[in-house]
Structures are given as C-alpha cells and as structure tokens.
Automatic annotation (TrEMBL):
Chain ranges of the RagB/SusD domain: 380-543
GO cellular component, one term: cell outer membrane
Annotated compartments: Cell outer membrane
Source organism of the structure: Chryseobacterium mucoviscidosis
Cross-referenced PROSITE patterns: PROKAR_LIPOPROTEIN
Family designation: Belongs to the SusD family.
Signal sequence coordinates: 1-26
Protein name: RagB/SusD domain-containing protein
Keywords: Cell outer membrane, Membrane, Signal
CDD domains named in the record: SusD (cd08977)
C-alpha cells in the first residue's frame, strides 16, 4: 500500500463508507508526486507516526486540509465535486446547523456566495443543501480516519513491526482517544441525521460491499458501548495534554447522549445522565474563577479558562489557520469597525441574534451586546445586517489586553464541552426530570450567575415553576444566557420540546413573524449526493 503522509484523504473517504470502494468520486483519482508517497511500512517505521496520525484526527475538528487556511482540502477540491472548503470546517458546519436554525442567530449573507444559507435561517433546507452536505462529508471523513488508524494499530500489526512495549502502551491510549473521537462524530451524526451509513474498523475496504444503514437507536447503543469499553484506557481527568480527550470528556459525552436519549431512542435515560454528569462535576475540572468574557478570548488556553474546558477544539492564528472555527465565529458576527475591538482586521457582517432570543435573556450580563449599537431588534429583512441585535462571544483579544497572533485568524479555542454546561445539565436533570437535588441545582445555577455578576435566584423561584412548560423554558433561558452561540441551541430546543412548536421566533418557517414547523425538521436529510452513491441508504421522512 502507498501512503501520502500528509494526504490521508483518499483512504479516509473510502473508509468513510459514503460510497462503495468501486464508486467514483473525482477526488479519489487525485494524483500526487512520487516523492510524496511512502509505503505504509515506511510510514509506520517512525515511532512518531502513530501520534502524528492521531494528531491528524484531532486536527480534523479544527482545519480543513493540508494548506492553511484554504487549499488541498481533506474532502477534495470544489472544482472536482468536493464541498466549499470554508463551509466544510467541522465547528463551522456544526455551529451553523445548530444555531442558524434557531432564535439565537440569523445570517445576512446572500445566496450567490452561500447557496442554501437562507434555508438554514428559514428551516426550509432540502436534501441538496450545500452546508448540510459539507458537514455530512466532514463527519464521515473523521469516522474514516479513525477506522483506518485502528486498522493500523492492532496488536498483530504492532508486533509485526517490532513496536516496543513502551510505545504499545502509548498506542493503547491513542486508540482509546481515537475511538472517543469517532464516538463524538457519531454522536453528532445521530443528533443531526438520526439514521446513517455505519462502519467500524472491521469494514473491509475494497470488498465491494456497501456499508449498511443503521438506525439512530443502534448507533446510540454502539456509542455507549464504545465509551464504556475505552474508559479504562483513557487517562484520568485533566492529566492529558490540553486539547486531548480524557475520562471526563467521555463521561460528558455519555451524559449528553443519555440526556438526549428520549429524543434519540424514545427511552428516558435521565438517571444514567445524572450518574455521568455527577462524575464530570466531581472531576478536577472546575468553574473558572475569571470574568465570563475571558472564557472566549484569544488566550483561553492559559488564562484560567482551561480549568473549565473539558474538551476544547484548539485554534492558533498562525499554526491552524481556517475560515471556520472561532475565526468564523468572530468575523461573521461583526462589521470591520467592531472587528477592530475584537482583535481582527475585518468583519464579515453575517449573523446576529433574533429578537425573541434577546427578549428571553433580558439584561443578563453574560449576553454581551456590542457597545453603542442601536440597530433595531426586529428583523424585517434577514439580508440586512443592520437589523437584529449584535452580540459578542468570541474574541481575538487576550485577557491581558493584547491582540492574538494574527489579525484575521483567531487564537481563541472552542470549548465543545465545558463545566458551565455540565452544571446546567445537572440543573435540568433536577428541575425538569426530577433527578438529583434541586438545592444542588440552585447552587450550580447561582455559581454561574455569581461569576458573571448576575443576581442570584432563590429556591422560591424554582418552586414557582409548577408546569412542565415553565420548567423547560426556565432551563432553556438559563442555558441561553450561559451558552449562547456555543452550538447547543437546536439540540436544547428539541430536547425541551420548543423547537417544532410552542415557541416561535422571527423567520422560523420562512415568514417574518415565524410559524410552527414540521416535526420532520428535527432531523436533517441525508444529502442526495450520498444517497446516490450507496443503495443501502434511505432518506429521512419529509425529504
């Protein structure tokens, strides 16, 4: 077998089972120079190669290819049928599907450069939506990388290469981390798509057998089993390198799965969620005792925010340039004049909040508004950035006041899992699901409020929540205040029964005053592009 050390693209796409190995994607025919090619044995002869491969899997959450910030895409050139590279960045893709489809954000960009973006605003996407297609491809590229890494690190292969006992011990940890990363991507897939094409490292590339479609429940149970299996091999909480997974990250992922299990499988698993989130909260991670805004600044890997970041996706304005990630989240939220106050030299005038979100969070200090901005909260024309409330979340300014390392590409890391979320997950389990202690939930809610200088609530405030709807809306609002623009809103609204109906925001359903949407909109479609490549796949209802 020939390998390109930097270009694992071809193998990963085939391994990602979006198509049979005999299917034709233009990218699979990419040609590289002979001096870029190595046999697999040459590659793995270097003891560092195993960690390098693992680093590539982690990097897939942050960058889009081998030439930063744009070029030599993991998913193939756009001219050859691949997605727009900026669209395909993992966090950008995930964030857009989770946020633009809710009250927390609406984007002003036009269809000429961003075809299909309006349909995310309006909840009217179809199976040809380019943003949905790009994220689907990115998820399964990640899965494919992990599958290949696991194939190449079996005990048999390591022994045949004469790998030392010490390195084998390290690789055992690497394999557990890789399986966590695959579980993470499968979690995102069941949340967004429900059923999906499914394969593990046991799938035989080149067999001519197309991978099967598996149900949401099947993949849910598989992920839980994987996370249980790897627990012993992951390192203890907060003992790994920053940005790498540990036991607490796996516990947090299990807690997320269990808390959403009623949506995913029809079975309530809130008791199991409480067990896992209690383990997370009892770990060495903690609520960072720093100003709330510093959690999202350019030096949030060292300014104290790292104490709270259970699983951060790391970015660096020099080393990991990308048009996604926190670069996108900063630049797309502002105009150039505001960008200058956020440590960047531009502004893309993209997304802002809808008026219903602003009404729900009130004057809570955690929801940081652009100082001096007087734009109307109501949005009569989604394409006019000057309509809608302008917010700040991520910044390329350090907590000490200096700018990040680059004037465009951000240094701020994106905490996919953080302790503030864990506190509110516990609070939800206690208040909505009746699990755990409401007194403890109150303490957790107030700990977050106190950090931000927000007035505490009392037990009488919680006791006043007598209806299920009131409890759900209370938790939704607390989560909105603490976690806005962190990529949780769509999932929260679905889990707490306010996504389809019962709560309306401007332009929901494609009309200015908003409307209820079909229940089928709780899932995105399997992209037509990939349905056509594997006859085992079937479409989600409503598409």
């Amino acid at each position: 077998m020939k390998l390109n050390i930097l270009k694992l693209r071809n193998l990963a796409i085939a391994s990602a089972f979006l198509l049979s190995i005999t299917s034709c994607l233009n990218d699979l025919d990419v040609k590289v120079n002979d001096d870029e090619l190595y046999t697999s044995e040459q590659f793995y002869a270097n003891p560092e190669s195993y960690k390098q491969f693992l680093a590539k899997i982690y990097a897939g959450l942050a960058v889009t290819g081998q030439t930063s910030p744009n070029g030599n895409s993991d998913l193939g050139a756009e001219a050859d049928g691949g997605p727009n590279e900026g669209f395909s960045q993992y966090i950008r893709g995930y964030w857009q599907l989770q946020e633009l489809t809710t009250d927390e954000a609406i984007i002003a960009w036009g269809e000429s450069d961003n075809p299909g973006i309006r349909d995310l605003n309006f909840n009217t996407w179809n199976a040809d939506n380019k943003f949905n297609e790009a994220f689907f491809a990115r998820i399964f590229f990640q899965v494919g990388l992990v599958n290949e890494f696991l194939r190449e690190t079996t005990d048999e292969k390591l022994s045949s290469r004469g790998v030392s006992a010490d390195l084998k011990t390290q690789i055992k940890i690497f394999r557990a981390e890789a399986r966590f990363l695959r579980a993470l991507s499968y979690y995102h897939a069941i949340d967004i798509y429900g059923k999906m094409p499914f394969a593990t490292e046991d799938y035989v590339i080149g067999s001519g057998v197309k991978p099967p479609m598996q149900s949401r429940e099947y993949v849910f149970n598989y992920i839980i089993g994987e996370l249980n299996d790897i627990d012993a091999d992951l390192v203890a909480p907060k003992t790994n390198e920053y940005g790498r997974a540990d036991k607490a990250a796996a516990w947090m992922l299990k807690a997320k799965l269990y808390q959403n299990a009623k949506v995913y499988t029809g079975v309530d698993k809130s008791t199991e969620a409480l067990t896992e989130i209690t383990k997370v909260i009892g770990s060495p991670y903690k609520i960072a005792t720093i100003p709330y805004a510093n959690l999202f600044k350019a030096d949030n890997n060292i300014n104290g925010a790292q104490d709270e970041a259970i699983f951060p996706i790391t970015f660096d304005g020099i080393k990991t340039k990308t048009y996604g990630g926190t670069t996108f989240l900063i630049l797309a939220s502002c105009v150039k004049s505001v960008g200058a106050t956020l440590g960047v030299n531009d502004g893309w005038a993209g997304f802002r909040a809808r008026q219903e979100f602003i009404q729900s969070v009130g004057s809570d200090a955690r929801v940081m508004k652009v100082s001096g901005n007087t734009d109307p909260a109501s949005i009569s024309d989604y394409s006019k950035f000057e309509e809608g409330t302008k917010l700040i979340k991520y910044s390329n300014i350090k907590s000490t006041g200096g700018n990040g390392s680059d004037g465009i590409f951000a240094d701020a890391d994106f905490a996919l899992f953080r302790m503030g979320d864990a506190y509110l997950m516990y609070a939800e389990l206690a208040i909505v699901n009746g699990k755990g202690s409401t007194a403890t939930a109150l303490n957790y809610i107030n700990a977050l409020r106190t950090r931000a200088g927000v007035t505490n609530i009392s037990m009488s405030d919680i006791n006043a929540l007598t209806s299920t709807d009131a409890k759900e809306m209370f938790i939704l609002n607390e989560r909105a205040k603490e976690l806005y623009w962190e990529g949780t809103r769509r999932q929260d609204l679905i889990r707490l029964n306010h996504y389809v109906s019962g709560y309306t925001w401007q332009w929901k359903g494609g009309i200015q005053n908003g409307n209820s949407i079909a229940s089928t909109r709780t899932l995105f479609p399997i992209p037509n592009k990939y349905l056509n490549l594997n006859s085992n796949l079937s479409q989600n209802p409503g598409y």
